[in-house]
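Please, structure for the following, as tokens.
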Amino acid sequence: MQQGGKDGVVSEIQPQRADNDRDAVSLAAALRHAEISVLFQDTSLGFVWTESPISEWAASSTIGKTDADFFPAESAEQLTAAKRAILAGSPASKMEIELPGTEGPRWYDIWLDPHVGANGAIDGVITTAIDITEQKLREQTLRTLLREVSHRSKNLLAIIQSIAAQTGRYSGTIDEFLTRFRGRLQSLSSYHRISSHPPTGAAPISAIWWPARSRAIAPTPRATSG
């Protein structure tokens, strides 16, 4: 924990808690493992203490500094405005921010709560920051996959529409059309199966072309005369 010293002198300490403070030690460990940061700012919005600070801040002291020292300008202004509102009596609030990191941007859910002193007055703001970067990356990956699925589905529907048009153009009867259309759809299905799950090594073109050709040009059953 980082903490301000007496008489306004800023100091950083790692307190050695007594045995009867084991719950606090356990809570601090849980916060670190869960990637949750808890910070306290007084009415001047200077940081007084932090527990498990955001990783990008770990290399420097946060004590006595403000949001403007760590956050991008836009985020700092948004946070400062929300915290001043809480000091003025507004209820707790929540927001999401993005911070630049050494390995790319990181996202945090930020919870802001008033801290009430012994005299019953609000004497600061408690900030809880939860790292949601992995969640955001999963959401981005899912959106990318859904866009790809949508694109491929549209292409597949266009191919099927073209197959139907071409088959209908060269089919003399409904039965002939259905036979050829089914064969070509089966060929398309086989192509996707082989291209998506190829056997060991490269699939030979004959594994796709010959079955497709035989189905596509399958002769139309003809009625026999009695």
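Residues 5-20, 220-226 have pLDDT under 50 and may be disordered. The CA atoms of residues 79 and 194 lie 54 Å apart.
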